[in-house]
Amino acid sequence: MSKPLIAGNWKSNKTVGEAMEWLQNFKVVTTAQVMLFVPFTLLHPLKKKIEGLHLSIELGAQDVSPFDDGAYTGAVNARQIKELADWVIIGHSERRQHFGETDAMLAQKVDQAKKEGLQIIYCVQDENIPVPLGVDVIAYEPVWAIGTGKSDSPENASEVISAIKAKTHVSSVIYGGSVTPENVASFVSREAIDGVLPGGASLDPEKFANLILCSQK
Ligand code: PEP
Known about the structure:
alpha/beta; TIM Barrel; eight-stranded parallel beta sheet; 8 helices; 36% helix; globular; binds phosphoenolpyruvate
């Protein structure tokens, strides 16, 4: 694997001040494709700062409205996100679990994101979860491995990812679930695994930089 995709997911963490500080302390030289998925409130200031510092970090949102512009109080839609970011995560298990997002609603979100030209990382919890047409990357994230410190084995992750690729014909599939600097190489060294989606390990800039460096070994 020459150019793994490393997609940090900040979840519901960080103020603008904290995000600026993170960026000041994030120092890495890498050939990896690095992405950050951040709260909506951070997209604009991070975009400006990343451009100002000439960093190769692609920005993404962690959710998108299933609707167009209009009377949907509290929703942030794909057209609004596209002004500030190129990517969006859809279908994270925390959205399914805490916000009641269904497969049907997620398919609507994918349609909206595609319509506006956003690229999509679509999360699945196993190889049997339906994947809407048009997603760019799939993230295999077993629920029991998210934020628990217990990652899947690279062997099993590789098998599940191969099954997902065979089923969906999506060529880029990454693994997420307690990825750390210590275990990242064991995942990305597998032929089938195209990268990783670290949550907790992306919150600290030095740890995230180290994880990226370790992914290249
Ligand atoms: C995630 O945010 O999708 C995730 C897998 O989190 P963590 O790396 O903390 O398990």
